[in-house]
Amino acid sequence: MITVHHLENSRSHRVLWLLEELDVPYQIKRYQREKSMMAPEALKKVHPLGKSPVITDENRVIAESGAILEYLEAKYDDENRLKLSDEAAQLQSRYWLHYAEGSLMPLLVMKLIFSRLGKSPVPWLIRPVGAALGKGVQRAYIDKQLAPHRQMIETHLASQPWFAGQRFSIADIQMSFPLLALTSRGGLDAMPATQQWLQKVQTRAAWQRAIEQGGPINLAS
Fold first, then answer.
1. Range 191-206 average pLDDT
2. Does residue 221 register a pLDDT over 60?
3. H helix intervals, 23-126
4. Residue 30 burial by CB count (10 A; 0-12/13-18/19+): exposed, middle or buried?
5. Is the sign of the CA dihedral 12, 214, 19, 43 positive or negative?
6. Rg for the chain (alpha carbons), in Å?
7. How confident is the model at residue 14, as a pLDDT?
8. Which is nearest to 194 in space by CA: 145, 146, 161?
9. Is 11 exposed, middle or buried (CB count within 10 Å of its CB: 0-12, 13-18, 19+)?
10. Mean pLDDT, the chain, whole residue set
11. Which helix (H) or strand (E) element contains residue 55?
């Protein structure tokens, strides 16, 4: 049976969601974050980087969200619930699958880091300077870098219901985490199509079952 090594409030929700969409049995091994919000050392016993998500299946250890989603779809989607037959849709799905972590998430992680320069564990004496620096970097660099991403995503979803086109796919599952992060760190103002997409995925029964299994997602900085 598949084991999902699940870190609370993390990207591994996407793995649980896909397994629920495919109705594939699995078990969860749960890990709690340290006070620093980092993953516990115990995860390094599963994978050298000690990160989540990671799954084990038939003595295979598979890490990285995109790789896990592709593996599970290829092996377990026998009923073609999410697999795409149209080549153009496949290319779209592949693009967004890799864009999510390769292009969008690095900017959102930077935004999170700089937003916390005025908070613990930064020493209290330099928090005012850290807060000012963080706000300045976000305003002068990060937010400007995020702007074309926001526009591209909104334009794309305004023209079609799902990231790969007319059908829900693993691209939508992959894009859910960065768009939740964007909601909490930059907002979805002036992005009505993206807001509609997010509301739509959150009403899916499989999404809700994944939340029941893995716990809520709170990405507020």
1. 97
2. no
3. 65-76, 87-99, 105-115
4. exposed
5. positive
6. 18
7. 95
8. 161
9. buried
10. 89
11. strand 54-57
Tokens 């890990």 -> residue: 31
Q: How far is residue 165's CA from residue 153's CA, in Å, rounded to a whole number?
A: 13
The rounded distance, in Å, linking the Cα atoms of 134 and 154 is 27
Q: What percentage of residues in the chain have a pLDDT greater than 70?
A: 92
Q: Which value, to the nearest 10 degrees, does the dihedral of the CA atoms of residues 174, 177, 180, 186 take? A: -100
State the number of CA atoms in the 13 A half-sphere of 199 facing the CB: 7
pLDDT computed for residue 129 by the predictor: 65
Residue closest to 34 by CA, chosen among 44, 26, 46, 25: 44
Mean pLDDT score, 77-99:
96
Burial of 147 (C-beta count, 10 Å sphere; 0-12/13-18/19+) = exposed
Per the rule left: phi > 0, alpha: psi between -120 and 50, beta: everything else, 50 is: left
Report pLDDT for 220: 65
Contact between 115 and 184 (Cβ < 8 Å): no
Q: Which long-range contacts (CB under 8 A, 24 or more apart) does 140-148 make?
A: 142/107, 142/110, 142/111, 142/114, 143/111, 143/186, 145/107, 146/107, 146/108, 146/111, 146/182, 146/186
pLDDT band at 31 (very low <50, low <70, confident <90, very high): confident
